[in-house]
Amino acid sequence: MEQSFSYPKTLCKEQFYEAFLADYSLYIEGETDIISTMANTAAALREAFGFFWVGFYCVHDSEWLHLGPFQGTAACTRIRFGRGVCGSCWSADESIIVPDVDQFPGHIACSSASRSEIVIPVHDKARNVIAVLDIDSDTLAAFDETDRKGLEAIIRAFEATVS
């Protein structure tokens, strides 16, 4: 099934997220393979929103995040628990918005073009963090509370499908 995640530019950001979530939820419905769903989620988010980098880092042995499916430039392959934005999101089990990555203590620079970032935790049915969704922008302060709420809703749909 071919799916386009293209929406009118006249939509406000909240409407854009709502339209995406409606299409995305139907698109992933019935798919239980987590890797396939991660891959299509990264591609759909990048297509719809034009993000610089979109991808998943998956928990491995409760110690590392390992690079999972992504769209964008080559990336770091491992991030230790509590390190950088992704590891901090994992350890705190909460979404993190970073307006300027150069101001985040311990930021791990996978790409020098990345200027701001948002990271959302992904849970299994027992509410354990199993991955994080990492999105980078090549502009400063690209993400806000609307992005956080919209992306958290998308991840809830993801979790309901693959958990």
- Order of strands side by side in the largest beta sheet? 3-2-1-6-5-4
What ranges have pLDDT less than 50 throughout 5 or more consecutive residues?
none
| Biggest beta sheet summary | 6 strands, antiparallel
Tell me the β content: 15-25%
**CATH homologous superfamily (4th level) name:** GAF domain
Number of individual domains: 1
Shape descriptor reads globular
Using the coordinates above, name the CATH class. Answer: Alpha Beta
Q: How large is the count of helical segments?
A: 4
Report the radius of gyration as a whole number of Å: 15 Å
Secondary structure elements and their pairing?
Elements: H1 13-28, H2 34-49, E1 53-60, E2 64-71, E3 78-80, H3 84-92, E4 96-98, E5 116-123, E6 129-137, H4 145-162
Helix pairs in contact: 1-4
